[in-house]
Every structure is written in C-alpha cells, then in structure tokens.
C-alpha cells in the first residue's frame, strides 16, 4: 500500500540557543538596587581621563585622580559616600600620606577636595547625577549633585552621555552650579591650564567619540601608547630624512664627478686643437 505523505505537516528546525537566550542588552550591568555598576565604557573612558590628566602648572607629584573610588564627604555621617566615575585633585600626593595606595578618598583626611568630577550618564543614574530629583528625606544621603555643589564645593562638574554624545559641564559660581559654555568645542579650566572636550578616535582599539583632556590652547594630551607611537614616528621620519640627505649627498658627489670628467674631456679636446685651456680666461 502506498501512502501519500505530502500532507504531513513538517515541523520547523529548532532555533539555535544563541537566538533565544537573553543577550547582553537583556542582561545589563546596571542593578536596580545598585545602579551605575561599570560596563566596558565605564572602565575605558575613566582610564583615558586618568592617563591624560596632566595639569601643566602643577607638580606631577601633587596631582591625583581616581575612577570608581568611594568618596567620603560627611564627618557627621562617616559611612555616607559617593562613587564618582572619575575625579581629579590638585595639591594632593598620589599616595595616601605619601606612602600607601588609597582604599577610598576621605575628604576630612585629605588636604584638598576634588577639583573636577566627571560622571558618565546612564538611564539608571541620570536623576542622581543631574540632581533632577532633589527631594532628600531626613537622615537619607543627598544626591551627587548636592554633595558636589553644596558640601564638597567642587569647582567643575562634568557629565557625559555615551548614548547621546552630549557633553555638559557646570562651574561653581557664588555657591551654586552654573552651566558652562564650550569654547572651540572645549570646556576651559584655566586654574589647571587644561581643557576638556570630545575627540573622535581610537583608544585601546575602540573607535568612537571619547572625552579627553587638552591643553588650554587646544593641544591634545597624549596617553602613553600614543606618546610611544609618536616617538616611533619621529624616529622613522628622522631616519627617512637621514637617508634622503645621504642620497642627496651621493647624487651631488656624482654630479661633481661628472662635471669634472666633462671638464677634463673638454680640456683634452682643446689641447688636440692646439689650444692651451690653462691660458683661457
């Protein structure tokens, strides 16, 4: 007996697991109970700021910066802290009391408060970072905005969103933050002879828009690998120039030899014609 199987429904082949399992977009690093946990960008961007924070009018031994380090700010509530994505301080040694790596930054034990703070915005931390929700309950820690502006009185507060590439900054004026305007695309901080702006390029082989330190005049401050690459390029250019100079010297010598040979040949020809070339003026 022959059966017609043309009407038997065919099941779809099973989908590979990677098409059905949650992706990194479904499992972000942010924790609703502890927002702002670091991702790749929160590691690389502060690292770039750390490597290039070089105030030219300060002794490098008195310049300190840190990323994702607890910042304790209230002696009345010593367990309260904020954790900036990055902050820089001038007038402070790199080591705690000159001999130990810091476990945290305790403002009442340090000679100076941070001079500039950078926060990298994310959906879970935007209200806290920008102080848009300022309803502080009794015995509850204030927002980052309030701490930076009213308690630590940090002169410059910078926020950057990698989602919108928007850069905003605030300067402490008369006890409160006022929005800063960009000058040639940069935020000027003349007290430390630096400026901060956006730069399109590759850092750690990642091409994107990065927040970077510049000199006050606008010259990009290189991080160590860029300095090495620039030094290597200078050596290569110097070697090329030396080779070109040597080649030019060889060609000049060849031209002089050829000119001398032609002159001797002409002199010999004149002698054959009965003319003494030495008597010619």
Automatic annotation (TrEMBL):
One of its GO terms (molecular function) is endonuclease activity. It comes from the Bacteria. Keywords: Coiled coil, Endonuclease, Hydrolase, Nuclease. It comes from Halotia branconii CENA392. Signal peptide: none annotated. The keyword Nuclease applies. This is Uma2 family endonuclease. It holds the Pfam family Uma2.
